[in-house]
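REQUEST FORM: STRUCTURE PREDICTION
Request ID: SP-0412
Submitted by: Lab K.M.
Chain count: 1
Length (residues): 255
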Amino acid sequence: MAVGESKRDTDEDEETVMISQAPAGSISVVERASSFVDRHLMFFRTLPIVIGGIGLVLVLRHLNHRMFLRFKRVSDIPMKYLESNKRLFGVVPSTEWDSINVWHVPTGKRLLRIGNRPPIGCPKDELLRIKFSGVSVGQSAELENWLNSRLLEREVWFTLLHPQGKRTVECAVYAKQKGAFGKKYCVNAELVAEGLGTTTEAQGFSSSEAKDKFMGLLSKREQSAKTGGKGMWDGSEYESWWTKTKKFFRRSQAA
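STATUS: Completed
RESULT:
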């Protein structure tokens, strides 16, 4: 029993000697670090919250800039929007013989339903002039009447394609038919389908597949206008015999 106690005392003495021989500097650093953390415990607890809050503010500022920025001229639009063929939204306060003037409505304002309508007498230098990509039109009263009846004071979506100067950009334009359940249609294709314009090469598409699909739609509608004798194709050699026959009977009944 005495031998065991003597051995235990010897072990304890050795452990005490080892602790006493440990570098004083290492113990001091640990103690100081522990003491610093204890004194600033609240700071270390709130630090992640502060960092997260700063990150959230930066994200919201970035979203605010993107979602609420209204483009008044083509030069305001970021190049990456044009290169990626981004689709924007707006309202048509006025038209020209070959284009429409659009009041751009940013996504944020559209969702909140604020600033969706241009002020009365809005100057043209605050509007985007949009020409119809892939369509060549000639000045005519019929075209102006069609644009006014279909698009004036209406909401439109326009896919950015090819800029022309600081104010004009060629786009694929889309609008909704009148009525609560009106379908969305491509204005470019409708112009060709009514014989108010002819198909021309579209520029600015970011992918060949999208361009081929768009040009295919225009070509199909143009062929339909030709065979149906619509607009400029009335009485042309492209009219189908069925169209000529129907027109003959209509004229006979009118006479």
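NOTES: Residues 12 and 18 are 10 Å apart (CA to CA).
Reviewed by: T.R.
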